[in-house]
Design the sequence.
């Protein structure tokens, strides 16, 4: 399925549905509800006192804005979060499955399918669940998509004299020891990057070898500076990374929000890229189930989805209004393929093991 992110967002903007509700307004007896039953769920969540949101790093996908808005609306529920990487998050939950310490878990969609197969998730259908496409959710709500992100090249032009525009360009000697990306064994974005390399070089869900061959060549050329375990956003903004293969929202944030301006170029590779659905789940045996549901409902509400859009992240719920200021800053993709979660999930072990053989 080909999808142009800018067109998708512009189309969504034209379908804006409900009037905007000030999510930052603390919920009280006189405050309009974001959805029917919100006040009763908040009362139950307040008795639990906290929600533990696993793998939602504050520098990732505009989560910090959602944390702030949630805290303002529900001051009697403390939100606790961390950032560990999709693969690490699922393995850690599996180890503690008899007594989980987290309420919700967020990850690249293929890892969500993996977590469901391991029996780690509870069914829950949040607000706007029915508006999600069938391919964007498990039928009973063990996982559901909340946004999508595309892989791009984020280039610091102060450190690189020539801006690469294609996967082929990255193989050139000009880019020796310049490229940083995340490890597919620990982070979903590393898996998505590998899928982008596979599909851009003629591979398929059944034939990953073209992508492995490309990445192997990239490493042998000495162009990969390092592979990291968690997002190096702060290091990029500090000017420590010449080229970061990562999601588009971080590049736009560095360029337009965090002061790097024209020093940053955000490039969608000419051969094509992929868009990755990211999902979230209620954990089976969660210690604070009502607080977890309150958090999940907020994320999938129009207020929560709009906060993703404000951080250059494509919302999953159709029809969410996109601010004009955001629309004007989005980039276009010559070709972007929305990953099939079932097919990508079925190849999770093949992908991580194949990558390790050529990259380590």
Sequence:
């Amino acid at each position: 399925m080909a999808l142009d992110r800018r067109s998708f967002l512009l189309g969504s903007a034209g379908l804006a549905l409900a009037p905007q509700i000030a999510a930052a307004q603390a919920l009280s007896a006189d405050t309009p509800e974001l959805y029917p039953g919100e006040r009763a769920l908040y009362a139950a969540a307040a008795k639990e006192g906290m929600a533990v949101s696993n793998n939602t790093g504050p520098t990732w996908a505009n989560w910090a804005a959602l944390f702030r808005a949630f805290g303002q609306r529900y001051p009697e529920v403390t939100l606790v979060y961390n950032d560990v990487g999709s693969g690490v998050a699922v393995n850690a939950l599996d180890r503690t499955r008899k007594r989980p310490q987290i309420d919700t878990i967020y990850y690249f969609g293929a890892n969500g399918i993996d977590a469901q197969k391991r029996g780690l998730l509870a069914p829950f259908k949040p607000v706007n669940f029915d508006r999600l496409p069938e391919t964007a959710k498990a039928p009973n709500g063990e996982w559901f998509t909340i946004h999508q992100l595309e892989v791009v090249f984020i280039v610091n032009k102060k450190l690189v004299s020539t801006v690469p525009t294609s996967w082929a360009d990255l193989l050139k000697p000009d880019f020796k020891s310049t490229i940083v990306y995340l490890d597919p064994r620990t982070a979903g974005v590393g898996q998505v990057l590998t899928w982008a390399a596979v599909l851009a070089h003629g591979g398929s869900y059944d034939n990953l070898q073209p992508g492995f061959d490309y990445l192997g060549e990239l490493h042998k050329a000495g162009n990969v500076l390092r592979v990291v375990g968690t997002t190096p956003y702060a290091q990029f903004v500090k000017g420590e990374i010449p080229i970061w293969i990562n999601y588009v929202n971080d590049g736009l944030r560095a360029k337009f929000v965090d002061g790097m301006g024209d020093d940053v170029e955000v490039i969608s590779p000419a051969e094509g890229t992929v868009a990755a659905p990211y999902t979230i789940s209620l954990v089976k045996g969660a210690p604070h189930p009502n607080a977890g549901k309150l958090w999940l409902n907020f994320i999938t509400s129009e207020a929560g989805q709009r906060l993703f859009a404000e951080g250059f992240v494509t919302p999953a719920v159709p029809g969410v209004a996109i601010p004009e200021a955001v629309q004007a800053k989005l980039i276009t993709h010559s070709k972007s393929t929305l990953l099939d979660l079932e097919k990508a999930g079925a190849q999770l072990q093949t992908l991580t093991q194949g990558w390790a053989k050529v990259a380590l």
Notes: The domain at 149-276+332-359 is CATH 3.40.190.10 (D-Maltodextrin-Binding Protein; domain 2). DSSP finds 14 helices and twelve strands in the chain. The chain has a mean pLDDT of 90. The longest strand covers residues 144-156.
